[in-house]
Design a protein that fits this description.
Blueprint lengths: L1 H25 L61 E7 L1 E3 L9 E3 H13 L3 E2 L2 H6 L7 E8 L3 H13 L3 E5 L1 H5 L8 H9 L3 E5 L20 H23 L5 E3 L10 H7 L2 E3 L6 E2 L10 E2 L13
Helix pairs in contact: 2-4
């Protein structure tokens, strides 16, 4: 029994020595070609704090990120303030025209002088306007002038109208309608009036029917006349002038020139009901900011050149 145990021990020892020898033959040497694992860390993965930076506080727990505001549209520039509107109007008063060489009084002008006036207005930047433009509220040109021809002489058509056409200048003619209605040879006919009105250069106004007499009362009340008697005499006369112009020209007159420039309070309501623009003979420039009634005018005569009346 003892002999068997010793043999078994001897065999086990030999077996262990054999196994150890085999392990030494198969294990690779320490400097074999198998590379060691790379345990280096890339530089980009190493965060080095900036000693000069200001630390940012951590956002509160549960807070939402703040988004940048969306820029709005560019502001609309403020419009330039409108230039103040011109309200100054020069109104020139003419009456009768005669050929060059004929002697003239205060109310007469030669055709040569009228041509010079129109040329002077054009050269100095003046623009002629009509009553209808004032009524419509059309802005005045910087230099506005209105040409008014009183009484309705035939010379307005024969001598002045061709020059208005040549210069494309506008004018308003105020008729004493009984002269035209009665066919007086020194005054306009209805055909002449219609032709000029249709041109667009001329408008027709009223200068009364027959109240503009030689006694220069015009529409002024007579001494001792009652208002009832006055209204019975004057208002139908004014209405007749309106009706005749409307009938023969096709347009109701909106312009009234006071005979001799004399206004009358008893006729004021009637006149303002039927006319939108009225003029007197008071000298000076009109300021339309004060309305369109009783506008002043400047009489034009041979003895006074236009540059003495209007600014150049």
């Amino acid at each position: 029994m003892k002999k068997t145990s010793i043999s078994a021990l001897f065999f086990a020892a030999v077996l262990c020595l054999s196994l150890c020898s085999a392990c030494q033959r198969t294990a690779p040497p320490p400097d074999a070609s198998v590379p060691p694992p790379d345990i280096s860390v890339p530089d980009s993965a190493i965060s080095v704090p900036d000693p000069f930076s200001t630390p940012q506080p951590a956002p509160p727990a549960g807070s939402q990120p703040v988004s940048e505001p969306t820029p709005g549209p560019d502001p609309i520039p403020e419009p330039e303030p409108d230039a103040p509107r011109n309200t100054k109007l020069y109104i020139l008063m003419y009456h009768h025209f005669v050929p060059e060489g004929v002697e003239c009084n205060t109310w007469m002008l030669t055709d040569t002088r009228f041509r010079e006036d129109l040329q002077w207005l054009a050269d100095h930047g003046y623009t002629t306007v009509l009553p209808s433009q004032l009524i419509a509220g059309t802005p005045l040109p910087e230099r506005a002038v209105m040409l008014t021809l009183d009484d309705g002489y035939a010379s307005n058509y024969q001598l002045a109208y061709p020059l208005l056409q040549e210069f494309q200048a506008k004018a308003v003619i105020s008729l004493i309608t009984h002269y035209t209605q009665d066919g007086h040879p020194s005054f306009l006919t209805w055909d002449m009036c219609s032709e000029m009105a249709q041109s667009g250069l001329v408008e027709l106004g009223s200068h009364t029917h027959a109240c503009h007499d030689n006694e220069e009362h015009g529409i002024k009340r007579w001494k001792g006349e009652t208002q009832t008697a006055y209204e019975a005499r004057v208002l139908p006369d004014l209405q007749t002038s309106i009706d005749l112009i409307s009938e023969h020209v096709g347009v109701s007159p909106q312009f009234f020139a006071y005979p001799n420039g004399k206004v009358e309070s008893w006729a004021k309501d009637f006149i303002q009901e039927h006319f939108a623009v009225t003029v007197t003979t008071r000298h000076g420039a009109a300021d339309l900011a004060n309305g369109l009634y009783s506008l002043p005018r400047c009489n034009v005569s041979m003895g006074v050149p236009l540059d003495k009346i209007l600014p150049s």
